Amino acid sequence: MDLHERQQFDFLLQIAVERFVERVQQLGEQRAQVRPFTDAIFADFLLDNADGACFVLRALSRETEATLIGMAKGAFSDLLQKKVEARWQPQ
Questions:
Q1: Integer Cα distance of 65 and 81 in angstroms
Q2: Residue 91: which pLDDT band, with cuts at 50, 70 and 90?
Q3: What is the 3-state secondary structure (H, E, C) of the chain?
Q4: What is the pLDDT of residues 34-81, one digit of tens each?
Q5: Are 20 and 32 spatial neighbours (Cβ–Cβ below 8 Å)?
Q6: Interaxial angle between packed helices 3-27 and 34-44, expressed in degrees from 0 to 180 and rounded to the nearest 10
Q7: CA nearest 75: which of 67, 63, 85?
Q8: Does the pLDDT at position 19 exceed 90?
Q9: Spatial separation of the C-alpha atoms in residues 86 and 42, rounded to whole Å
């Protein structure tokens, strides 16, 4: 990840943390849920698409390298299976 991308991710994370802390203070810990908040952050920062997802995953690649590799292999495997099934017509 380039330095400017790292800086952008760090800024995004800082903003998200600040906003979520405010949400917890307003609603309380029981009502402030991370997953719906994350959905909103992704939408607000235009990350709810393939490029946005890749941006976040690249920033987290050190922590999640095995997960990323597994996801890539799974997606490739699914695509390979579909392509083979489309060509394979048992007679």
A1: 24
A2: low
A3: CCHHHHHHHHHHHHHHHHHHHHHHHHHCCCCCCHHHHHHHHHHHCCCCCHHHHHHHHHHCHHHHHHHHHHHHHHHHHHHHHHHHHHHCCCC
A4: 999 999 999 999 999 999 999 998 888 777 778 878 888 999 999 999
A5: yes
A6: 130
A7: 67
A8: yes
A9: 35
Q: 19 CB contacts (<8 Å, ≥6 apart)?
A: 37, 41
pLDDT for 65 equals 78
What is the rounded end-to-end Cα distance, in angstroms, of the chain?
49
* Neighbour count for residue 40 (Cβ, 10 Å): 15
Distances (CA, A) of 82 to 15, 69, 73, 74, 88: 41, 20, 14, 12, 10
Q: In the structure encoding, which two tokens stand for residue 24, read together?
A: 């917890």
